[in-house]
Amino acid sequence: MKLPEIDLYLIAPEIVITVFGFLVLLVDVFSPKGEKKGYLGILSLIGIILAGVYTVPQMGGIQSGFGGMFISDGFAQFFKITFLIIAFLTILISMGYTQREGIAFGEYYSLILFATLGMMLMAAGTHLITLFLGLELMSISIYILAGMMREDRRSVEAALKYFLLGAFATGFLLYGMALLYGATGSLALKDIGAYIASKNLLRNPMLLMSLVFLTIGFGFKIASVPFHMWTPDVYEGAPTSITAFMATGVKAAGFSALIRVFFSALPGFRPDWTGIMWVMAVATMTVGNIVAISQTNIKRMLAYSSIAHAGYILVAFVAGNDLGTSGILFYLMAYAFMNLGAFTVVILLGKKGEENTLIADYAGIGFKYPFLAASMTIFLLSMAGIPPLGGFMAKFYVFSAAVKEKFYWLAILGVINSAISVYYYLRVTIFMYFRESEREITGLQFSLAQRVALILAVIGTLYMGIFPANVLSLAQKSVAGLM
Amino acid sequence: MDILDIPILSLLTFFPLVGAVVLLFINKERAETLRWVTLIVAFVEFIFSLPLFFVFDSTTAAMQFVEDWWWVEAYGISYKVGIDGISLLLVLLTTFLTVLCILCSWSAITSRVKEFMISFLFLETGMIGALVALDLILFYVFWEVMLIPMYLLIGVWGDPKRRIYAAIKFFLFTMAGSVLMLIAILVLYFINLKATGKATFDVLELYQLGMPVGTQYWLFGAFALAFAIKVPMFPFHTWLPDAHTEAPTAGSVILAGVLLKMGTYGFIRFAIPLFPKAAFDLLPLVSVLALIGILYGALVSMMQPDLKRLVAFSSVSHLGYVMLGMFAFNTQGVQGSIYQMLNHGISTGSLFLIVGMIYERRHTRLISDFGGLSKVMPIYATFFMIVTLSSIGLPGTNGFVGEFLILLGAFQSNVVYGVLAASGVILGAAYMLWMFQRVMFGKITKPENEKLKDLNAREILTLVPMVILILLMGIYPKLFFSKMDVSVEKFLKDVKGKVEMKADLPAPKILAEINK
């Protein structure tokens, strides 16, 4: 038997992340107890940068390895960069936050690294097993991270809820994969696609069932309606830095796997899934936005807003053209900046024992913490799709993809939703700028890392809105080989 | 000419933004410095804009001072700016009114001066940008950018009672209208892409595109909704009285002076030339709505107890004239319409300034709280009188020229419209003069009014330029018409040409292309 060729350079970024994940654990174990351990975060950051250094030179090339289980193409590389940015910012905002909340364990950082590794595998996997391994690695790490604050009941509840529902969804996903294997006899995405095309299995009931199960499984990970029920509770209960990580990273990873599986293995079923996804997109946008209006807790509001954003991204998925797919990549990166930025502000406004996550707590901070409030305004307006911010350009590409494929109603419902969302995003600015605070929020502490994260997020949001051309052309090149 | 070498329009667009950044670094305790710096920035901006007027070549209808760079090349989005005779005067109006707004906020805005001034300069960038943009996406970006500072101006510095309601209403109305326009822009883009193979949002190129009438209706509808809300045309006007009444004086002035013009300007630059057939077919609808606006606005004004609300509703009426003239589709109507846009900016802007001055002294705007003011404040009364007459359209003032031309145009296109619109003029005189009488003449009924101070030098300085313009535009309108003549002729020629060409023959080749 001939062993598949092993090219370690191909998975160099993943190796780096793995090594640093363990390194962080080891350093933690061998360092004296009771220290602040800020260096663990710095070590993780170094790992992420190093992984980026290995990813960037690969860009532009397409290389497959490990017997077709793994690929480094534009799509995977773009997503890896996105994940690394997300992980980088998450760790930055964690430095200071973890100390404050008493969760500055080595596991915290190493789990973030492992989750990132899982995401990277999901984007690069071209084989159902690789995809599933990546998904599980990511999910399990996140289950633990969500429950990191052991003393806090809501955090534990969030972890348990996420775990139970997540496990259930994974079951569906696995079932779908099994059916796929049963019908086609293969686990490699390319082979599945080729087999379906050659045998003309488009009306095969097993495959149709598998399509439904896969939709459910991925629908859960990207938090689309009607598989979104867990989102608000988990987002509210989990440590805020992890919420930010989930809302951006897990969602992006879910979309990467969704696109990869559906476009590589099941392209023939497009007429079938278009209808389902159309309804899901509209339901996701509408439910997310309408429910977000009545939220009083900012973390819950951002949770519903993240549901709505999954809906906008699904619009591009329905369009299914090059424009839409590159739009999704652009969207997810822009969303990473603005959403992580917004959660950073949420973290910065809290202190030990006083989270200040009610929207009413934001009263009057506009003039008390001008930079913080201005950044928050930028992030929120960007999410609302107001130019010239990243979120506007992202929505612009997504909706233009829909218009190009003549999904006019989908695009119209999308922009109407966008207009509805303005209301609740503005509501936060109303509190920040138009209302006087009833109680003073004082004694806030901003760590240097958190300041850097905030500034990076602002720059990212502005850059992607004002100079979108570079990222967009990169995204367009990245999806070139996908379909 | 030397001046053509510098990118004057970009300079005008982004200079206020640079000013706003400079303000960021000034300590917020130093209110006086902040005011002076902002005033200097606004004034320099005005000076920068003046050469446009004199260098502008009024013999050509082509866009001038054009700058054209790629923004997102892959998509065909460009940074393309330029002005013609129609936008030239509006740009000047913007830079001019901004200076006055800073002046009138001198003592009216005492808290959070820094943020106010930054918002204002940011707003100016948005306004100029929207007026000079020749790329649909660029225009859309600036169009939305204007919303945020205006929202803050109303919400933070507005009248405490209902400012938040007014601010959010303003934002949501405008936003809701404009998102559909974005979809329409995209549809237009893809139709053009299919028909010509060229990816572009350049409005001058999109003018050339022929479309089936059915598509035109939809797209015109989406554009028209966005602009009609902004104008605002009846029945989309309900945000206006709230926004105007609650906004601080400077906000009201700029809202009336420039922001509402964005709606009418949008019609004349985008909605009509892009979809001429649809515009022609919907002419009766738009004209009737404009007429309802004229009469309804005037009647409601008459009944307002609050000075600012009265002026706000009079805006609805005045902008009805603008729309009516534009949709007369003849030279007089369109020229009068553009002229009336400027007039409204100056007259209604001045009215808001004047109401703001009395509000600063008395902290009330109710007409019943005044009476006999002409005895204690003679200078104020004089200015008020001139502005009132200009708003009514007395011959010799700017209002007369605009309204007369619009009525002339309306009579030519449809006698009934003309008659109804002319009766609006009478109503206009009635509510303005009645208001003036109740505020200015009669006995002083309230003791608080007896000791009111007359205008100070700064306030006079704010109003004098307005009065000069009112008279200049009334006595020598040729100065301004000469700038827009050629552009208006071209606008009408293009629109009519396309309507006749495509009236029965919806460009079969392109139609086939689209259906492919």
Would you kindly provide a written description of the structure presented here, covering whatever features stand out?
Chain A has a domain of 196 residues. Chain A is 75% helix and 1% strand. Chain A has 19 helices and two strands. Chain A has a two-stranded antiparallel ribbon. The model of chain A has no long low-confidence stretch (mean pLDDT 91). With 516 residues, chain B is mostly helical. Chain B has a domain of 172 residues. In chain B, 74% of the residues lie in helices and 3% in strands. Chain B has a two-stranded antiparallel ribbon with strand order 1-2. In chain B, a hairpin with a 4-residue loop joins strand 1 and strand 2. The N and C termini of chain B lie far apart (49 Å). The C terminus of chain B is likely disordered. The interface between A and B is medium-sized, with 31 and 35 residues.
Looking across the biggest beta sheet of chain A, what order are the strands in? Answer: 1-2
Structural class of chain A: mainly alpha
Largest sheet of chain A: 2 strands, antiparallel
User: Would you report the number of β strands of chain A?
Assistant: 2
Strand order of the largest sheet of chain B: 1-2
Query: If you average the pLDDT of chain A, what whole number results?
Result: 91
Structural class of chain B: mainly alpha
Proportion of helical residues of chain B? over 70%
Total strand segments of chain B: 2
Mean pLDDT of chain B: 88
Instruction: Tell me the span between the first and last alpha carbons of chain B.
Output: 49 Å
Q: Give the number of helices of chain A.
A: 19
Low-confidence stretches of chain B are 503-516
Over the alpha carbons, how many angstroms does the gyration radius of chain A reach? Answer: 21 Å
